[in-house]
Hints:
Blueprint: H1 9-12, H2 17-31, E1 41-46, H3 54-67, E2 72-76, H4 84-87, H5 96-100, E3 111-112, E4 118-121, H6 130-134, H7 137-147, E5 152-156, H8 165-169, E6 175-181, H9 187-200, E7 204-210
Parallel strand pairs: 1-5, 1-6, 2-4, 2-5, 6-7
Antiparallel strand pairs: 3-4
Helix pairs in contact: 2-3
Amino acid sequence: MLRLNKSLITDLNPSSHISESFRSLRTYIRQLGLLGGNAGKVLLFTSAEGGEGKTTILANLAVSFVQDGKRVAVVDCNLRHPGLHSVFEVEGSHGLAAYLGGTEESKDVAVYGNLANLAVIPAGITAVSPPDLLGNDKMAALLEELKTSFDLILLDSPQAVEFSDARILAPLTDGVIIVARHGKSKREALRKLKTLMDQTGTKILGIAMNHSK
């Protein structure tokens, strides 16, 4: 069963100013013209460094889109330090790693619950190098399959300056959202992240500023 913990403000307090901030981000993404058509869209969330709040922002945005009537899948591609299984309170031992490693079928790794139209694919546990897993053809196949059932697929990934995971995933997506933390993110690191994402040929859709006033 999919449960929601206290970091999901959009579910616990939809009238709060924080929830309104996520509705504003939702509106921005909709105005980009990404939604609609016959197939779902894939967005990658990354940051320059760790601790920027990617997972919390992604999860709350997912709930906000579900509240707007969209079908949403969230995929924890951070095989190094998974977090989505904690936010949504699901088992984290199976999931993406098991599917990419060939021990589970795609239909068996998604978790559904009492929040209609939301599916969570936790990262799982693996001893294999994350870039090797994420770079195999099964990752692209999974996203193509999810596009047939969901309007929006949100991917959580590790920080992109230190690790190559986000750069491997970016070309499989329709755009990248960079998460930065007000008063913490370094401008030099953000510039380096932009350069790395530009090298993938993937469009940067914008920056989501966490803890801004």
